[in-house]
Amino acid sequence: MKKLLGIFFLLSISPLLWGQSGVALLKQAKRQPDPQQQIKLLTKAVEKSPKLADAYHYRGDAYRALGKHKAALDDYTRTINLRPKEPFRYYARALLYEDMQRWQAALTDLNTAISLKPSYKKFYLERARVQLRLGKFEAAVSDYEKGRSTLPKNASVLEMMPAYIGAYRYDKALTLLDSSADADTSAGHYWRGRVYLGRNELDEAVSAFSKSINRDDSFAPAYRYRANAYKDMGELEASLADYTVLLSLQPEAIFYNRRGLIYEELGQYDRAEEDYTHAIELNSKWAIPYNNRGFVRMHLKEWNAAQKDLETAISLEPSVPTPYINLAGVYWLGKKDRKQAYANLDKALKRNFKDVESLYQEDKKGWMFKGLNQTAQFRALLYK
Questions:
Q1: Contacts by 76-84, CB closer than 8 A, 24 or more apart
Q2: Residues 140-191: pLDDT tens digits?
Q3: pLDDT tens digit string along 36-74?
Q4: 374-379 — which CB contacts under 8 Å span 24+ positions?
C-alpha cells in the first residue's frame, strides 16, 4: 500500500515539475536543503532551459557537496562556457579543484577570477592558500597581505605562518605573532618555535615549543619540532623522549623512521631495527626505512637480511644512490665479494652519488669499505 501511495505521489508531482519553467525550478532548488533533491530539480531545469547558467552552477554545488567531483566539474565548466566573464564561476571551480588537489588548475582559475574582479579580496585569500600548497611562499605572502582582512580575526595570523616561514620572513612573522590574540596559546607558541627553528635559534625554539606543550600536552606538532631542535643541539636522549611521546599521539611511519635514526646515532641498533620495521609495516612502499633497516642490520651483522632490505629499497626507488652504496658495503664486509661491491659502487656513482670522500672516512661510510678503500682499483673507480 505504501509503495502504491509513493508511486501516486510521484505521478501527481511530476506534471507539476514539467509544467514549471527552468527559472522556477531553479528557485525551487535553491530553497531545497537536500543536495540529492536539488540535483533532481536542477536537472529538470536544464532540460527546460539548456542555457540557464545558474542551474548548472547550483547543480555543480550540489554534486560537490556529495563528493561527486567529476559531475561537479562538468557543470562548473558548462556554466563558465555560458558566462565566461563572470569571476565567481571560476572561483567555484577553483574550490572544486582544491578538493581534488589539482592545485595548478585551481591557481589558473583563481588568476582568471582576479583578472575579472581584482578588487575582491577573498579571491586573493584563496589564491594564497593554493600558492602555499604549491610551495610558492613569496607569492602566498603577497596574496595573504591583500586578502587577510577577509579571514576570521583570531585565525588570520596562524594561517599565514607557513607562508611567512617558507619565505624566510621571520621578523615579520614574529611581529604578526606578537600582535595576535593567539600569541599565548599552544598554537601561537608552536609557530613562534618554528620561526626560531628557521633562524637556527635552537634554545629559543625549544623554549617556545615547551610553552606550547605546557599549554596543551597533546599538541603533537610541538613534540615533533622540539625533537628536531634537540637533535640539532646534540641532545639525542631528549629528542628520543619527544619522539616517543609523539608516537603515542601519532603512530605514523615517518616518526618511527625518525626515532630509528636517533637510536641509530645512539648505537642502539636493535631498537633502531624495531622502529624501521614498524615504519615498514605502516608503509611497505616507502624505500627509506628499508634502506635504514638494511644499514643497521649491517651493524648487527645480519648480512642476508641487510641485503634483502637494500634490494627492496632499490626496487622501490632505483634512482637513489645510497642503497647501492650500502649494498656494496654488504657485499664487501659480509661476503668479501669484491666484484659485486664494485658493481654497486659504480651504480651509485651513475646515480649521482657525490660524497666520495665519505667512503674513506671511518666515522661516515668508510667503515664499510675498510681495506678495499685503500686499493688503487677502488680509487680509480671513484675518480674515473
A1: 78/53, 79/53, 79/54, 82/51, 82/53, 82/56, 83/53
A2: 999 999 988 887 765 678 999 999 999 999 999 999 999 888 899 999 999 9
A3: 999 999 999 999 999 999 999 999 999 999 999 999 999
A4: 377/342, 378/342
**For residue 91, how far is the Cα from the chain centroid?**
23
DSSP conformational letter for 135: T
Q: How far is 68 from 84, CA to CA, in rounded Å?
A: 23
pLDDT digit string, tens, across residues 295-309: 999 999 999 999 999
* C-alpha count within 13 angstroms, C-beta hemisphere, residue 280: 20
User: Which of 200, 267, 273 lies closest to 232, judged by CA?
Assistant: 200
Q: Which helix (H) or strand (E) is 146 found in, with range?
A: helix 137-147
Q: For residues 211 and 139, give the distance between their C-alpha atoms in angstroms, rounded to a whole number.
A: 31
Q: Check residue 14 and give its pLDDT.
A: 47
Q: Which three cell numbers stand for residue 372?
A: 678495499
> Cell 593567539 maps to which residue?
182
Locate 224 and state its grid cell.
615533533
